[in-house]
Specification:
There is one protein chain. The protein has about 475 residues and is of the alpha+beta class. It has helices spanning about 10-25, 95-105, 145-165, 260-270, 310-325, 355-365, 375-390, 420-425, 450-455, 470-485, and strands at about 35-40, 50, 60-65, 70-75, 80-85, 115-120, 125, 165-175, 180-185, 185-195, 200-205, 215, 225-230, 235-245, 255, 280-285, 295, 335-345, 395-405, 405-410, 415, 430-435, 445. An 8-stranded mixed beta sheet has the order 6-5-4-1-8-13-14-16, with helices on both faces. A 4-stranded mixed beta sheet has the order 18-19-20-22, with helices on one face. Strands 11-10-12 form a 3-stranded antiparallel beta sheet, with no helix packed on it.
């Protein structure tokens, strides 16, 4: 169901305030001045907190590169849109709602026009509390210290991007870069056992040249989509990229890093000759539909790289190819902006009697006993119990779509499979479309019903938390929202 800081010249500050005043007081401004602004806001965590994203959570001992929020603000004279991309593995809705409330209260920008999303770096601390709390149901509970810090700094970054609004030009494009994206789920010649005591046809990260490999379980989306912003005299303001690549990794234990997402932005700044600008150029890479995609080709021998080496290879190559395409982008002096949002109610998955029985058997066994089904079975027994006892029977998720001229953008609060993103592109009424995942919340993986049938990590209960048909409902909702923007 749906329920519908850096200083700027004095002139630009006054102009930005005037545009916002016209937008949110009479909503009928006849101005055709397109404006854009961008900012970077630092959210680097303190050392000593657990780094999340893998099966263990070592304390942060070293800051390799800063953890940031990168924001852009767009205004067409009547409508303001905000896109804010946050260096974190995933952020709960309640944290992002808190940031939106601050922004809305200070600017009156509608909530539907505010899009906040995680990059999915696996090399920073949690913005979803720590330990077992990360997977519990927290909506309505007080935020912890780092969550409050992130919410405030996201809001600060957006407010600075608005302060930086100036007359601008906008363009967009896309280029295929298939070399770095591989479906990490493989169909196996012989079924494999899951921690739930159920046999799977598919396996995530099955190992290079595993003799049981049959074929990848799904497609990839090789396209790098991007939105480019320049001042009226051609100075680069910001670039927002979107690539369906989970993350790259290759980070030493205890290191904090924004992964390849940040390296891409730095390389774009270099290529565009935008170093040491005032205000600073902001290069952004958002995560597309990459729930089943990573940077490892299991059909070939394993590659070995030094720490951070592969990140640089991927980020620099993607940036180089985007830069070449950028040269042919047609910039426009004005485009119409629009946003539509709703809340979609989804059922929370529950364990079958068979799985409950299997997990009961697992919990009865001593910790040092040989696993009954799988080395991770006790982890999943605890997670399933938490899902069964703490999560409500239904959740309401934020669905969001945007219109930027002939470009459509969708936002989904899950780690979304590539085939779902490809279907959204195919069905979208816009000439160009891309999807930002882990937007406005985070509820686990979103496989298609067909992928649920073959199983694998991303489909295991508690890794996936919502009804098996959720992707169908989400696509239908997005198409309806897109239709409202035509």
């Amino acid at each position: 169901m749906r329920n519908q800081m850096s200083q700027r010249p004095f002139f630009n500050s006054i102009l930005a305030v005037l545009i916002l005043f016209l937008t949110y007081t009479n909503g009928q401004s006849q101005s055709k001045v397109f404006m854009a602004g961008a900012s970077i806001s630092n959210i680097t965590p303190p050392l000593g907190e657990p780094v999340v994203g893998n099966w263990n959570s070592p304390p942060a001992t070293y800051i390799h590169d800063q953890i940031n929020v990168r924001s852009i603000a767009l205004n067409d004279g009547n409508t303001t849109l905000i896109f804010s991309i946050i260096d974190n593995v995933s952020i709960n809705r309640e944290v992002l709602d808190a940031a939106k409330a601050i922004i809305h209260n200070k600017t009156r920008i509608p909530y539907a026009n505010l899009m906040l999303a995680s990059t999915h770096t696996h090399s920073s601390i949690s913005a979803g509390k720590t330990g077992s709390q990360r997977r519990g149901w927290q909506y309505g509970e007080p935020l912890d210290e780092y969550q409050r810090f992130v919410a405030k700094r996201v809001a600060d970054g957006v407010l600075v991007a608005i302060e930086n609004l100036e007359p601008a030009k906008i363009g967009w494009g896309g280029v295929d870069v298939p070399d770095h994206v591989f479906n990490r789920r493989w169909l196996m010649k012989e079924p494999v056992m899951s921690p739930l005591g159920i046999m799977d046809k598919a396996k995530m990260n099955p190992g290079n040249l595993n003799p049981n490999l049959d074929k990848p379980a799904g497609p990839i989306d090789p396209e790098v989509s991007f939105l480019a912003l320049e001042s009226v005299d051609g100075r680069p303001i910001a670039l927002l990229g979107n690539y369906s690549l989970h993350y790259v990794g290759g980070v030493p234990k205890g290191h904090v890093s924004a992964d390849y997402f940040a390296i891409f932005g730095d390389r774009m700044q270099e290529l565009l000759g935008a170093d040491r600008q005032e205000p600073a150029f902001v290069g952004i890479m958002s995560n597309g539909t990459s729930g089943d995609i990573n940077n490892l080709n299991f059909g070939k021998p394993r590659e070995n790289h030094e720490p951070y080496e592969k990140m640089k290879i991927v980020a620099n190559d993607v940036a180089d190819k985007v830069y070449k395409t950028y040269q042919n982008v047609k910039f426009q002096d004005w485009v119409q902006l629009g946003a539509a949002a709703s809340e979609l109610t989804l059922d929370v998955r529950r364990a079958s009697p068979e799985v409950l029985k299997n997990m009961e058997l697992v919990m009865e066994r001593p910790m040092d006993d040989k696993p009954l089904f799988h080395p991770l079975e006790k982890n999943y027994a605890n997670r399933i119990m938490q899902l069964e006892t703490q999560w409500p029977d239904q959740i309401d998720i934020v669905m969001q779509t945007f219109k930027i001229g002939d470009l459509g953008i969708a936002a989904i609060p899950f780690e979304v499979f590539a085939e779902i993103g490809l279907e959204i592109k195919e069905k979208s009424p816009f000439d160009d479309t891309f999807t930002i995942e882990l937007a406005n919340g985070a509820y686990g993986y979103l496989p298609s019903p067909e992928q649920h049938e073959v199983g694998g990590y991303e489909t295991w209960l508690s890794t996936n938390r919502v009804e098996l048909n959720a992707s169908r409902k989400i696509i239908a909702e997005l198409m309806e929202l897109f239709s409202n923007l035509d």
